[in-house]
């Protein structure tokens, strides 16, 4: 199984804003005072378009889908939370914590991929768990080490343990389960998505081990990464707050590897960390300040990787 892909799906926002329904447990969101909603959306669109341009310039196959005004979907820019595409031809659809995010799931996006020659053989639909109040938000909640058959998950209100185990059984992954915390107003609170504090590359892993308060769990996670011969690059909680955990390794032209992140993530890294990362992939960064502030998500969240077979 490949760990990285050349193909990604991205959703261009039409009514991007801070989502009041996700702010209850996403502590990275901020209100941008004095900006009209239309200004916020225009800034987000501009950041989005520049980001897509940079990815395409290095040969990443980006399928851009326009969001629709028919639904109130302020977070549609983060598709990796509701869908994942697998080498087996399987597509997984995930149960979402915020009610207004459930409308982001669109069948026409799957149709567009099929029109581009991707093959979908089966849809694994976990969304009925929403009715019972259980959630698992895609590759935000679960980090897949596809090559080594492991899935990492930091449990939170948006990542239910039983659902995660069900996913692992269905897709044949060994579960690695832990809890990750951040300090909010002096209190330790669960981090809402695993991919905020951790990134899995082909030959490396970026992780904020300090977020895993339980020493046994921390040791277990690090041992799993090291057992799979990944170079572990540690980041701090301050760097997590700058979205340095929210990175994704993709492939460009001639299979060249790129590590994609926001400008704020890139700027927060030390010279030594950059040197460590650049041994594995070339860094590609883009300014996502508005998207990060209002959405509380960053570069990784904006890209849904497509591993589907192509005809």
TrEMBL record:
Keyword annotations for this protein, in alphabetical order, are: Transferase
Task: Please give the name of this protein.
Answer: Amidinotransferase
What domain of life does the UniProt record list for this protein's source? Bacteria
PANTHER family named in the record: AMIDINOTRANSFERASE
**Biological source species:** Flavobacterium hercynium
Q: Does the keyword Transferase apply?
A: yes
Q: Which InterPro entries match?
A: Amdntrnsf_FN0238
Task: Provide a Gene Ontology MF annotation, just one.
Answer: transferase activity
Membrane-crossing residue ranges in chain numbering? none
